Amino acid sequence: MYKVKTLNKIAQTGLDIIKGAGIELDNEAQSPDAILVRSAKMHDMEFDGNLLCIARAGAGTNNIPVDRCAEKGIVVFNTPGANSEAVKELVICALLVASRDVAGGIEWVKSIADKGDEIPAMVEKGKSAFTGPEIAGKVLGVIGLGAIGAKIANTAVELGMDVYGYDPYLSVDAAWDLSRSVIHATDIDTIYRNCDYITLHVPYIKDQTHHMLNKEAFEKMKDGVRIINLARGELVCDEDLMDAIDTAKVARYVTDFPNAITANAPNVIPMPHLGASTPESEEKCAVMAAREARDYLLNGNITNSVNLPCATLDRMGVCRVCILHKNVPRMLHHFLDLIGDAELNVAHMINKQRGDYAYTIIDIDSPIGDAIPETIRKMDDVIRVRVL
Length: 388
What we know:
The protein is of the alpha/beta class. It contains 13 helices and 16 strands. Helices cover 33% and strands 20% of the residues. The strands form three sheets. The protein has a seven-stranded parallel beta sheet, sandwiched between helices. The chain has a five-stranded parallel beta sheet with strand order 2-1-3-4-5. A four-stranded antiparallel beta sheet has the order 14-15-13-16, covered by helices on one side.
């Protein structure tokens, strides 16, 4: 029986999917077959050869050593889109509080709570300190048009904003979901030059998006720009941000990732990582992660992997062989030669590649025995072999 371990609290609906498949939940397991995780840090963890997959109930995988996992044949899943509604709603909230100093106004009212009957007059006199512009008619730049970014762009259009979208990796499916009113920016500088508000929805990739909003980027932006970052804290250089706030280049910054620099900084609205913190989002992420782990454990299907090829195949044979291997020539030829030499018939198969890695699923019409899988395991460039 497969064993699954959880490193964080996972919604019960997700756990029920695991248990309903006859898979054991064992949080004390020293050698689990799969791990379900939300935000627990895993970079310092050691993984033995028994671990098959890690399913992250959420989109980001910064807390997981995805490259090391790929080398060991451990599939890392995430749940793209499962939290998109929750994040979208919070971004819309952030746009509003970035415009009008609602948070500052609330704190000020609380500070005069002991003034008794003087409060109404004080409010009328002091409210002008917290005014701000409407968002209708303003220009919003959405950087990253995946499941979340596309929803935000469409909603902002409905709220009367002019919207620019930038995403050099925009998928066909995402493009179909976008409102025709969203203006396609062909370079990121178009966003910087034209937008009153900018919201980030890109993954953190150390050598690509680390501190993508820095001094150089801020200098290209309009004076008084308002920036929303509910994606990843490391996308913004906080030191350069503070300088941009001091010079009024940035009017307000809303972040879901407060730290020692931003937690109490002027014109920064820090939120305690609330992006996906809704019961609905947590449940959807848990269900999606559990289904991904279940399908891989039981059927070898890979969906929404962030580090290895995705490949799914409906079962058509008596036996299924799943092979993770390096993406080098003639590997498939070697596998099929072995199977053919044993006079076994292939009912169905699929081979997918991703960067340095490839994944092959082969359905066979009869039991394969132990000899062929063992021979494949000993081949150069083969990482993992499973027979299901």
